[in-house]
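Notebook entry, structure prediction.
Reason for the run: the old model in the group folder had no record of what sequence produced it. Starting over properly, with the input documented here first.
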Amino acid sequence: MAPLSQGQIGHSYFQRSFLSVDVTSSKPEQQETESAYAWLRLCAALALMTLGGAGMYTVTVVLPRVQSEFGVGRSDASLPYTLTMIGFALGGILMGKLSDRHGVMVPVVLGALCLGTGLIVGGSAASLWQFGLVQGVLIGLLGTSATFAPLVADTSLWFTRRRGIAVAICSSGNYLAGAVWPPVMQYFIDRVGWRQAYMGAGVFCILVMLPLALALRRRAPVPAHAASGPAANPAPVENRAERPLGFSPGTLQLLLCVAGVSCCVAMSMPQVHIVAYCGDLGYGPARGAQMLSLMLGFGIVSRLISGWISDHIGGLRTLLLGSVLQGVALLLFLPFDGLVSLYVVSALFGLFQGGIVPSYTLIVREYFTPKEAGARIGTVLMATLFGMALGGWMSGAIFDLTGSYRAAFLNGTAWNLLNIGIVVTLLYRAHRRGALVLAGPVSNQPR
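New structure, fully documented this time:
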């Protein structure tokens, strides 16, 4: 065999040390799921998702300033947010595949650099189209997307018995970002201006996110199915690989994506329009903003409770439970439009719907092979984001046509019923094939 050149040796070392960390070289206890190291990674993932959420929430805070400075209408000023969400959705698939191939640290490092750079460049944009391009590509496609689907997928690989609650904690970072970034950005915008605040946020994200990403350097333990420990009711190996629930993998993926779009069209109606709805009722937008904060706050509680529930009954049943309760809460907006009633219904809506999106991650992990987790979870989560975008626009269009949100609430309920129908179908097939996963496996270690 010919000796390797110095360049080949260097390239081989780079692949081994950075892109493809050898999991067998680490200490055994560090590779165990449910370990102290797994919980440390979860804390880092939660912090990274909260920081990465800057890309979604900073742009909403600066919208009035951007509109005023560039002299455009409200719809044009909203375009950068729309481009961010489109980039966020598409980037989930790209970053998921990158995570599957090289480990989660690679997309997170890339995302931190692109997010920070995007915020810095966005703060110096000379026109609205430049600002929108930066938001869509650097911040949405390459930045924030790296801190959502890849982190959720990676977390699901490090936990078995407590996978549900772990995924719920991780995905709560998205809601935490919505609670943290707007007031922080508004504080600095009022004092130094939106451009300086944007640039400062970019520098902060790079400086904090890169060290946190080092906690994710070790590759996740991906077990062989045959070596898995006992489970309460595990899906058969062939069911998870070639014919999940009797479908082809692509068909099941498509059904989950349609369900994701449907549930989030329903979910977006109150989340996107509650402020405007309160304004129409005469309560003022400030009351609506308070209801939205209440909704998101209870959404965090919902994610944690649903995570605990899913550890006992599995992802499919948890998704059905959340979807049914979301439909009930959505219907409650129709007869109850008093001020106090709306506060209560908003809290109930947040409490009922917060665990729906994380359930899709668990279903993918239960019925697909772990090596596909990043890409498949990214695809399903992309569908939920498209559902949020579609539902927000659709509810506004229905209001313009009817002059009322009543038809919009009914439209959301109809989409929610479609989601429930798909989930019931999947549950029926799982029961019939004996493939219903009730809880995660006790251990992923070889016996």
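Summary: DSSP finds 19 helices and no strands in the chain.
The old model has been moved to the deprecated folder.
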